[in-house]
Prior knowledge:
Blueprint: H1 6-24, H2 31-38, H3 42-48, H4 59-73, H5 80-98, H6 101-113, H7 126-140, H8 150-170, H9 177-190
Amino acid sequence: MPRKNTRNTKGRIISTAWKLFYEQGYEDTTVEDIVFESETSKGSFYHYFDGKDALLGTLANIFDEKYEQLKGSMDPEMDALDKLAWLNHELFAMIDASVSLDLLARLLSTQLLAKGEKSLLDRNRTYFKLLRRIVEEGLEAGQLRRDRTANEIVKAYALWERALLYDWCLCGGEYSLTAYTDRVTPLFLEGYRAAGRE
């Protein structure tokens, strides 16, 4: 008997849930809606999640799916800082287009209140692995300043992105997240450029 693709089932539940949260709103989306739209079962749903609230911490999975897609379309000729700015633009454009302010605020609040696993800080995420690879390549190529380690640069960049998201939520989404990050992120990243490189 072939084994079920459990990752695919869980992934379908997560992606369907976030699609419905965006289209219908979190409060108006039921577990039954998610099960029906994902073509799974209630048993499968409750195997992976205690309830609808447990899905709030899975937005990081959606972000990582986006990073998996972006890895393949990133221009290898860009330098490390341009790659980081491009990734930032692409993710924030996705958030602007398909993640409501309410959902993002809920995700950030679950991370603040979480006692155990904090998905946004999980160093095994595609996000952190990709950032580390880009930064290490940039250090090796002499594009980034060498008085900071790869870990320090990755941590600062991730902190920067979380700060932008948190501020956008605090301001009630009164400005375009993508337009704002396109203006300020390159300025932030310039602080990590190796002296004499432009």
